[in-house]
Amino acid sequence: MDAADAAAASPAAPHQPPYQYTASQGYEQTEEVPRELLRQQADAPLPVDGDDDDLEDIFDDDDQIDDDEEWAADGDLTKSYNRQRQATDAGAAVPRSNAQKPKANTFASVDDQVSALSKHAVKIRLDSVKQDDDRDKDKADRATSEQVLDQRTRMILLQMINRGVVSEVHGAISTGKEANVYGAVSHDDETGVATQRAIKVYKTAILVFKDRERYITGEHRFKGGFDKGNSRKMVKLWAEKEYRNLRRIYNAGIPCPEPLALKLHVLVMGFLGDRKGWAYPRLRDANLKGDDVDQQWQNLYVQLLGTMRRMYQICRLVHADLSEYNILYHNGKLYIIDVSQSVEPDHPRSLEFLRMDIKNVGDFFRRKGVDTLPDRAIFNFITVPAGPVEEPAMGEAIAKLYETRQAATNEEEAAAEEVDTEVFRNQYIPQTLEQVYDIEKDVKRLGLGEGNELVYSKLLADQVVAAPNGGEKNKVDEEESEDESGEGASLGGDDDESGDDESRFDKGRPRGRKFEDKDEKKLHKQAVKEAKREKRQEKIPKHLKKKLVSSTSRKTKK
Ligand SMILES: Nc1ncnc2c1ncn2[C@@H]1O[C@H](COP(=O)(O)OP(=O)(O)OP(=O)(O)O)[C@@H](O)[C@H]1O
Ligand SMILES: [Mg+2]
């Protein structure tokens, strides 16, 4: 063994990448592929049955949200297309025109594609973990053992590399119950400039997702519901939801990762961190510096309230898992992440989730010594349509809230405020107009001019009774629904199953006080019931629908 060999064999030897990156030419292998990776490549050929190693849907582009957007990682479709062409020329891809995909050919072509992609295997380098040790020691330790990729995920990543969405995949930034987030780098072909990316890979283990149902039930974008028995399909929906929600939030100008590409349960997004690949800290771990730290915390609090209002009013979203863990901090700015569970205001439990978000945020900032506003005041601030949705006006509106707030001058009043917050937190929030009407005493209170006492008073006054902006939806919302209808179907695919939606905020009809008269209310209720019954009769029974769908499905089952 000569000196060079000995040096290379040493565990302390500097790590040399086994390939070289040349601008405009991509990678060239300069070294033998490590044995570990070779083994993974050898594992690549497909097992026959539809277990977790079934790769067919990975090479099936038909079910993507939006082909163009999905792969236009750098906004450069030509590059991606050329790369794809190269792969195709090498005999890798199935001819796209062959919609029927005869069975035998499908297997052969998947095999071909797998082996064509395996040339990129060296660009998945999970050993290069970027984790801050003092941030979460436990997590860092787990990272190495838990970041192992399953075969399907590996294939998706290789495919993404092949298409130029990213150039290299690195180790996990975070490993969690539901998802791992990996660092990645994208090299610009022309300039050679490297841009950091983040890749969120959802785990397909079924148990983890058991409590996710509450976010989906009642979400019109998941009308088709989700199939609890099919975890793969579920995580795909989940990733898709995060992608769409991110897109809304990003388009509204709220700091968050830019959604870049999506394939099944793998989501590529902009990296929130420095150019070397160190992610920004979570708000929980933010280490504010300077002699005005208290003021900085106060400003962050106000900033976050504004963000929540913007999310609600412009993106039509309630985060639903907002806390110091799902916000990243950098340079005085808060970045919203982890939005797969976010719901629209018409979700039956959206206001409950919003109330929970408000509580979490308040609890955290109070621990930081911030003088926070009462939950009820924030709830109203976020949900009232009237008022500014832009800074600095939103900040000013919050300053007003502080000014007008009944200063708790003595202990008694402070205690009363606390009680009020407690009452608010436990108060029943009606989510549908029918629920509002069913509560006779609420109607009475309204009649007595005590409407302000109702937790949903602002919603009642501004959103339900008089539909905002004459019933029109706001801009981003419209864009979103356009793009959603442009994609053919809502998530879950069952577009026409709108019967159950009737009871939620119906923005089109004048409602509310108009029906305060008891008889009129009764008549109206009957009419609604009747209409629903009729609709139910027209509905194709679920089992028939399923049959219909599967018989017309393009996908050839094995
Ligand atoms: N775009 C990004 N840029 C940089 N870091 C990110 C990005 N997205 C996520 N992270 C890091 O990964 C961590 C986990 O991300 P996220 O909160 O989205 O996953 P999660 O759904 O909470 O996963 P789990 O619940 O399984 O822990 C974040 O706390 C953050 O540190
Ligand atoms: Mg999280």
TrEMBL record:
Which amino acids does the record list as binding Mg(2+)? N326, D338
- Known EC number(s)? 2.7.11.1
The record's section on SMART domains has: RIO
Under the heading CDD domains, the entry gives: RIO1_euk
Q: Which PROSITE patterns match?
A: RIO1
The cross-references to Gene3D superfamilies, in alphabetical order and at most eight, read: Phosphorylase Kinase, domain 1 (3.30.200.20), Transferase(Phosphotransferase) domain 1 (1.10.510.10)
- List all Polar residues biased stretches: 19-28
Its UniProt entry gives the catalysed reaction(s) as: L-seryl-[protein] + ATP = O-phospho-L-seryl-[protein] + ADP + H(+); ATP + H2O = ADP + phosphate + H(+); L-threonyl-[protein] + ATP = O-phospho-L-threonyl-[protein] + ADP + H(+)
Which Gene Ontology terms of cellular component type are present?
A: cytoplasm
| Highest taxon in the source lineage | Eukaryota
Feature: compositional bias, Basic residues: 542-558
* GO-annotated biological processes: ribosome biogenesis
Q: Which residues form the RIO kinase domain?
A: 138-384
Example of a GO MF term: ATP hydrolysis activity
**What is the official name of this protein in its record?**
Serine/threonine-protein kinase RIO1
